[in-house]
Design goal:
single chain; 301 residues; alpha/beta; Rossmann fold; N-(1-d-carboxylethyl)-l-norvaline Dehydrogenase, domain 2; 2 domains; eight-stranded mixed β-sheet; two-stranded antiparallel ribbon; 10 strands; globular; binds 3-hydroxybutanoyl-coenzyme A; 3-hydroxyacyl-CoA dehydrogenase NAD-binding domain-containing protein
Length: 301
């Protein structure tokens, strides 16, 4: 496998239509980014129409917010709304040249999603996964053409966080890598090419921080003491606020993946799984401001 230097930009394939699999929060956030920055048709899909509609509502709501803040013109708003489309019919992906997924973080689910999508897309379409920490090589295990699969990992909130990790799996070919780098630049993100290793670069470090924070709670330090102690450290968010931002289930999954890969270096947290089922750590007011700790969450710990 070649070293992960800058790929030849001339090999990048044009992206004239984007397909997005999954209409959850992460997928909806980057659907907006793709339509806004590439100005091409963007089709989002999910298991059922209700999920698709929820994603579309979020995107249209964000377009309305951009309009009300004066960040886009009424013409631009109309154009973006016309370019974004939702469906449960994957046949609409047949002329997409970039298809990216953000479905549930489970290897088998992602493998099946790509095996199915490969039946619909053209031979030249590039496939991308937004996995947080799974192996891109394994995600592509059921693909006939794994050389066209690349990791393309966004951070939450997508509109604000400047980084995309472009994961160079062993099979990824240079044209795919080049398309990913050129696409990231068009999205106005800073892209780094990473190895296909658990957590890539950022989540490997983040898993350490979040895992240590949960371990401190697991072993008897209260959420409140931890949160108050870490708040003045100049972090934009404490580890627990960050866990809520990325989603407690996603956070638990990231920690589990790291524990499985490096059991001597990463903790697994029973409490985090309990919290993930419960859904939250903090109480918040109607505007999302933290008002205290959720009593049931504290009881779980
Ligand atoms: N969507 C769109 N825009 C958002 C947003 C969202 N969800 N959340 C905040 N913003 C925007 C606001 O609109 C505002 O923009 P403006 O100044 O142009 O109006 C700007 O961000 C700042 O927001 P606020 O003033 O409301 O709040 P803060 O200054 O506290 O910033 C934050 C909020 C940017 C989320 C900041 O707390 C932060 O950077 N937190 C850390 C986030 C982080 O580390 N993310 C990585 C998580 S790891 C991950 O995603 C990987 C995964 O695989 C696990």
């Amino acid at each position: 496998k070649r070293p992960a230097g800058a790929p030849d930009k001339a090999l990048a394939k044009p992206v004239t239509k984007v397909g997005i699999i999954g209409a959850g929060l992460m997928a909806s956030q980057f659907a907006l980014l793709f339509v806004r920055r590439l100005q091409v048709p963007v089709v989002i899909t999910d298991l059922d129409q209700a999920r698709v509609d929820k994603g579309l509502d979020y995107i249209r709501g964000e377009i309305a917010t951009l309009l009300s803040k004066g960040r886009i013109s009424p013409d631009e708003s109309n154009r973006l709304n016309a370019l974004i489309h939702g469906t449960t019919d994957k046949a609409e992906f047949n002329d997409a040249d970039w298809v990216i997924e953000a479905v549930f973080e489970e290897l088998g689910v992602k493998q099946d999603v790509f095996a199915e999508i490969e039946k619909h897309v053209s031979e030249t379409a590039v496939l991308a996964t937004n996995t947080s920490s799974l192996s891109v090589e394994q995600i592509g295990a059921k693909l006939a053409h794994p050389e066209r699969l690349v990791g393309f990992h966004f951070f939450n909130p997508v509109a604000v966080m400047p980084l995309v990790e472009v994961v160079n799996a062993p099979a990824t070919d240079e044209a795919t890598l080049s398309t990913a780098m050129v696409t990231a630049a068009k999205l106005k993100k800073n892209a780094v090419i990473t190895r296909d290793t658990p957590g890539f670069v950022v989540n490997r470090i983040l898993a350490k921080v979040l895992g240590e924070a949960m371990h401190a709670v697991d072993t008897g330090t209260s959420f409140e003491v931890m949160n108050r102690a870490l708040d003045p450290f100049g972090l934009p968010m404490t580890p627990f606020e960050l866990l809520e931002l990325v989603g407690l289930k996603v956070g638990a999954h990231v920690l589990d993946t790291h524990h499985a890969a490096f059991p001597d270096r990463f903790f697994e947290s029973e409490n985090l799984h309990g919290l993930a089922e419960h859904g939250k750590i903090f109480d918040r007011d109607g505007k999302g401001k933290i008002t205290g700790f959720d009593k049931k969450a504290v009881a779980i710990v």
